[in-house]
Amino acid sequence: MNVRSKAAAAVAAVAFVATSALPASAADAPIYIETVASGASLKVLATAGDVINGYQIAGIPDGTGAFKSGNSVKLLMNHELAYGAVISNIARAGGDAFGATITEFTMNPLTQAITNAREFLTSAVFYNYATKSYGSTPAAPAGAAAKDAYGTPQHTNFLNRFCSASLAPAGRFSYVDPKTKKAYGIKDAVFLTGEEGGDESRGFAVNAAGQIAQIPAVGLAAWETFVTAPTGTKTTALFGNEDGSATDSQLWLYQGTKTNTGAWYQRAGLTNGSTSVMNIGGYKTEAAFRAAVGKGKSTPVNFAKVDATLNGVEQNKAAATVGTALARVEDGAFDPNNPNDYYFVTTESNGDKAATALDPNNKLVTKRDGGALWRLRLTDVKNPSLGGNITMLLDGSEAPYLNKPDNIEVDGFGNILIEEDPGNNAQLERMFAYRISDGKIAVLTQFKASMFSKAAADASFITEDEEQSGVLNVTPLLRKNKSDKNSYYVLNAQVHATGAALLKARPDITNEDEKTVLARAIEGGQLYVLTIPNWSAVYGN
Predict the structure, then answer these.
(1) Cβ-contact 426, 464 below 8 angstroms
(2) Which numeric CATH code is attached to 4-539?
(3) Residues 381-435: tens digit of each pLDDT
(4) Which of 250, 255, 366, 446 would you call most buried, defined as having the most Cβ atoms within 10 angstroms of its Cβ?
(5) What CA–CA distances, in Å, run from 334 to 91, 227, 341, 353?
(6) Which distant-in-sequence residues (6+ apart) come within 8 Å of 288 by Cβ?
């Protein structure tokens, strides 16, 4: 998500009243999303504003991660909080930082009930570009502006707008040499996220203990997400998806080497490598690629290095010179069944006529951009810098007419789940499934018209500015036994509501003091489990 008006709206929050408390149970909260696919069902896990064991759930939920912990499942969820939001001014990470944050939910996998919630961040490590050292005090690279165009401080202890995310599973950053039996890296899972601001935005890694560490070697850009390549070797590789300008966003690649010395983020190989950007067949822009190549044709790609020690503006100038500028690179994921295949979406199309043509079956929607779905097929995932070939699988022209694809998940069952971010318009935001084997598309979920369509509005109408995000396959964690054939996913809803609209998002909260505290929910949101019993029924065959 990269809509500054949404982030700016968070500034208009009411002061937090510490003496008040919201209901511990929010069973009466409205459900914002409904299923469309045959047999699918949704269960609400938590709603922004809920208080669970004294911890209030913030709004603007985004990227997620999940892992097994004893008999429980831990769910991690980003909050895309902007500078000026009241909750952003609360200290995070043990007082080392403030701003955007990550919630850790504890979930009973059998009942799918949330039993606890807490702040996941416990401490912070920043990078000082002047001293080339890690510590509690960040310092900007030479020439970096102190604030961005929106007044947000850059290269400080403020954490700005955590967007999508990925969880590198336990062992992904570990390697044992088969000959010497020497171990490198770290065994624990690592949560990867980044700031989605401007060119000076930073990348971060969070370990199992909740320590968040800046990883400057990945570069500076408006980060949507980072995704770890399953190299299975001593090489550490991350793809960085830049969701910046529609005419100047790149797919970045970081490659480093796991070690057996230093702090955990150094041993993981996140500090000693180099950064590159993707070049597609020498085409400078997505528009040029669309005009010359288009959908369905495989095209060679390579990666060109960028100096990550420069300030963000200079890094991005260099990236534009050597790479291909795409129309806002959003979320990405590797195919568990084909580790050389990395899928990602671009939210826009540089005005491509086919991608921006309106849906003939929905006259209410007067603005659309179908973006694109891409498959990057690496020559060898063990060494992504060797490049490979890329194919535009969807060019945005296809029914049912996607509108700004954003977050995605590749589930290992042959599906890519795609969530939209259409912005503030009449489009009821949806989540789609794309079947890899034949390219068939089906609608899974959408927001309820009564609350999110002015045309169908009733007393429960909240806003036309809504989106789903954070979709994640959690089937291995939630299947009850071997006979359970359901597929399970977590996802969340962003309800970009402020003021009176935020109160309408939680009509179950009626106490006046509690309404004041509700401002800490910042725009609202909701976390769900989606259950799919039969994928053939979803696609109609």
Answers:
(1) yes
(2) 2.130.10
(3) 999 999 999 999 999 999 999 999 999 999 999 999 999 999 999 999 999 999 9
(4) 250
(5) 35, 8, 6, 30
(6) none
